[in-house]
Amino acid sequence: MLKYVNTDIVFQEIPDEVTLAINISNCPCHCPGCHSHYLWEDIGLPLDTNAIDAFVEEYGTDITCISFMGGDCDPKGVNMLALYVHEEYPQFKVAWYSGRTVISSAITKTDFDYIKIGPFIRHLGPLKSPTTNQRLYRQKEDGQFEDITSRFWKK
After folding, report:
1. pLDDT > 80? residue 10
2. N or C: which end of the chain has fewer CB within 10 A?
């Protein structure tokens, strides 16, 4: 079962979106240099459709995107929630951050508008660094994904 520890409204995770970032616990990736060690533990509240409904009730007019931050412990569960958001709340974009280098085969990528992949590797830097190993992909109208990571880099 997916669990979340906290949420935050963020402006830098997904370009041009006001995003509700949902921090999911029980992360199996354990990236060296991780700034969220507390998410390695199996703690928090159930992240299910009832929680999504409550988030939309609380933040619905303030956000344009819902992002699942983690969930590599249950990618199928993340996919199910992404599909739920798209079906019940089509006004929102859906994003997922996976600390893996490859998207799980349990995921239907087209259920997401954005997918960010890659473990945090301190010496390569975060998305805003041109040397980062992390990548952010946006789904295009034809269902293909394009790498938009460079949008984070200062020109």
Report:
1. yes
2. C
